[in-house]
Amino acid sequence: MINRQRRPPLFLITGTILGAFLGLILILMFPVRLRDVSPSSLAPEYKEQYRLQTALAFAASGDIGRALARIELLSDPDPVRSLVSQAQIALANNNTQREARALAGLAAAMDAVIANRSATAVAVDTPNPGQQGELATPFETGDEGAFYVLRDQKLLCENAQQPPFLQLFVFNAQQNAQAGVQLTISSADGNDQFATGMKPEMGPGYAEYELTPGVVYTLSVNGVEAIGGLQAAACETASGDPAWATWLLLFDATE
Asked: Mean pLDDT of successive 10-residue segments in the chain (255 residues)?
């Protein structure tokens, strides 16, 4: 008895080949184009490049608001930790020291802004014990009788195009950012008064003042002298460019 193998009908084979051929033509004529792809959809290696370019841009411009907005598009669970981890990897390579400093600098700046935001959010959601059914003001306001001490000071050198600045953050004893704290900066040219909270995008406890090179300043917080001998300082950025440094001061209220 002869066994005959069953073969598929010829029209099925022809149809399959013809369909594949037409599909290839359509792909070539109408290629898939991705538009408006979110950075959060990038592969891990491209996310690293995105963080690095953002950090380098921040090192050049000092625009923390723009850098923060860009990093948030990655939707990292912990954006500061991601930057720090990438900086540590770059630090291990002698050829990527500049990248490491840029990543670490952005991580530190973001950490300060995020902490300030968190302090403000806590103040917003904390009920005022003196008034049932009402919420506290969106942030703590300065107490006229409060006394503030300098907790930390740093000299930042990041932007070759930026003039010398004094930047400061003021917190109360519970580490809530305080708006409305009166500040006086004195020099041989006279006194200037300003207050925290004038730049809401940086947080209620933030204030800044542009320094004039060659002038020595004394800063008073709430009418009490807090630090003297402040003056514009020249520095060199991570890329080797000459620049004016920024003084970053952190003040806490005492109990």
From this structure: 56 65 64 64 88 89 83 89 87 82 86 65 43 36 70 83 89 85 92 89 87 92 88 83 87 84
Give, to the nearest 10 degrees, the angle between helix 79-91 and helix 97-125.
160
CATH says 139-253 is which class? Answer: mainly beta
Q: How far is CA 212 from the centre of its chain?
A: 27
Structure tokens, 149: 């001490």
Verdict on whether the full-model pTM lies above 0.70: no
Domain boundaries, the chain: 41-124, 139-253
Amino acid identity of residue 30, one-letter, is F
Q: Which of 169, 172, 200, 162 is nearest to 183 (CA)?
A: 169
* Token pair recorded at residue 135: 């919420």
CA–CA dist 163, 244 (Å, integer) = 6
C-alpha–C-alpha distance, residues 23 and 17, integer Å: 10
Helix (H) or strand (E) holding 20: helix 10-29
Q: How many CB atoms lie within 10 A of CB 11?
A: 9
How many Cα atoms are found within 13 Å in the side-chain-facing hemisphere of 178?
25
In 3D space, the residue among 254, 255, 212 whose CA is nearest the CA of residue 232 turns out to be 212
CA dihedral over 238, 242, 244, 245, signed as positive or negative: positive
